[in-house]
Amino acid sequence: MKVITGGVLIDGTGRDPLTGATVVIGDDGRIEQVGRIDSLPKGAEVVDVAGKTIMPGLIDCHVHFFVDLKPLHELVAAPVSLRVIQAVENARLTLDAGVTSVRETSGTPIGFKRAAAQGLIAAPRMKISVAPLSQTGGHGDMTLPNGSVHPLLPYGNPLEWPNTVFDGVDGARKAARLVLRAGADFIKMMTTGGVLSPSTEPHHTQLTREEIATIVYEAKAQGKVCAAHAQGTEGIRNAVECGVESIEHGIYMDEAVIDLMKRKGTFLVPTLQAPMASIRRGEDHPGSVLPQSMRKAREVVDIHRRNVGIAIQAGVKVAMGTDAGVGYHGTNAEELRLMVEAGMTPMQSIVASTKVASECAHMDAEVGTLTPGKFADLLVVDGNPLDDIGILEDKSRLLMILQGGRAHKNTMERA
Ligand SMILES: [Zn+2]
Question: The domain 2-56+369-410: what is its CATH number?
């Protein structure tokens, strides 16, 4: 048994912080008690965290462990095995940043998730979508006009990464079934163009409503849900109306679609970091971001921030997601600061990155809040992020990172 005691508790539910709080963790890695307790259980390993903050591990609803924006010649020449080992490193960097769970929005195959579950690699808990469903020439089709394929994702093995580029209702049905067979926990689809794909624009509408509805039907038939990369207004509306549960990016949301998302309870995963990060990467490493992608990122960055702010004010359910892979892996906590700059309170940004994110990822039965019965995925932070949300970006302030009660990182002395 492990006891963490004396800290300021932010439990992830949005409740006011509680001083002098204790979290009791059982040998099964689950939380047994949380709050102010009269006497500490005997024989437990006690960690005194007076003056520190105890909060749930962060949950990032939009990451790509297998995406690294590197110069094209490096990506083209990289063997799949190298990409896998790089992804292992990316997952560890994510956990080092205090992100204890993720929704992996395409690229990560089932074997990688199993390696993490078996403890072979240090990685966040994950829900995966394996490969994104896209129309021919859509955001998930990385074929260049000359027929060569942009190697953004290492789609080398057709079994682990099935071909999910299709057209028509029958094609949609087949692609959905292929990706579910390959181990997808949820289906990611592209209902608009985007910034990084070579020949689309963010406002382009992709997939027909019949195709989207077919994918949603096939997911639901196997107890799964759908997320849509959706940036243009019409593609966002099509996804929401056809029953997609989460809108990724949402750049050109208008008031009508924001209202519709609010009424239907659709999640927004803003990924405010993504356009900024594309620009930053392209400037740091010329040749790693296509010129048309740099142009598109610059076109959308301000309107994206503004429309996410409108959605926050309107009360749309916002779940934190960064699009890590587009940005540098391990810089996930920047998104909380960006959400605060877009109009959230620091507490709202924490709830979006814990409780709401766990609901969006369908992991809320296990993690997301510090509640008895859930896994002890938690952080001990030097300082209080409610006073300055930016401290979460400083890894030296993450004094403890626990996953299921086990320390991924622990710089605290035992009492
Ligand atoms: Zn993405």
Answer: 2.30.40.10
